[in-house]
Amino acid sequence: MEQIKDRLIVGNNLFKNKIANNSKLKEIIEQQINGQSPYALVITCSDSRVIPEEIFSASLGELFVIRTAGNVVNEGELASVEYGIRHLNIKYVLVLAHTHCGAIHAAIHHEKGQYLSPILDNISYNIATEKDEYKASCINALKQVDFLLEKFPDFDGIIEAGIYNIEDNSFSFIGE
Q1: Are 60 and 145 found together in one domain?
Q2: Range of the domain at 3
Q3: Do 63 and 84 have their domain in common?
Q4: Domain check: are 28 and 113 in the same one?
Q5: What's the structural domain count of the chain?
């Protein structure tokens, strides 16, 4: 465990040095000390291979990211979405699915967990009998969009879905 803690500290020191040696990043941080104004809200999976800031070449403060297994939107995530669209005035929301999603796989194979079950139940309901993981990921993302549109009917921005392909690092919108 000490090695993990040391790795985190070393990583933070590298980050601090990167900021200290990059006047543009330093300026961005100074501008955002008293607030943020991201151009998009991204709801994505907790999967460590899916990093929206990297996928979209976004800098600090440009994306408001909500991460949850299977990019599922439940009550806790709704609070963060509400904060983003009502308090930060974000007008664009992307539900970002991805290939090789463990939560999608688990839902298709009817796995359970003490705390994971609400997420898997949500996905299972959304994908019904779909067994193809790629299609299921797309269906689930589109259903999350529908849920957000239902919960925020007065939202005057755009809510849509996309998918990140882990194999080739490509992104595409779903349904276009």
Answers
A1: yes
A2: 1-35
A3: yes
A4: no
A5: 2
What does the pLDDT look like over 68-106, one tens digit per residue? Answer: 999 999 988 999 999 999 999 999 999 999 999 999 999
For 127-162, b/e burial (b = at least 16 CB within 10 A) is: beebeebbebbbbbbbbbbebbeeebeebeeebbbb
- In this structure, the number of other CB atoms found within 10 A of the CB of residue 74 comes to 12
pLDDT at 132 over 90: yes
Same domain, 4 and 87: no
CATH assignment at residue 169:
3.40.1050.10
Q: pTM score, two decimals?
A: 0.92
Longest dimension (CA), the chain: 52
pLDDT in tens, 65-78: 999 999 999 988 99
Angle of the 117-127 helix axis to the 133-151 helix axis, nearest 10: 100
| pLDDT higher than 80, residue 176 | no
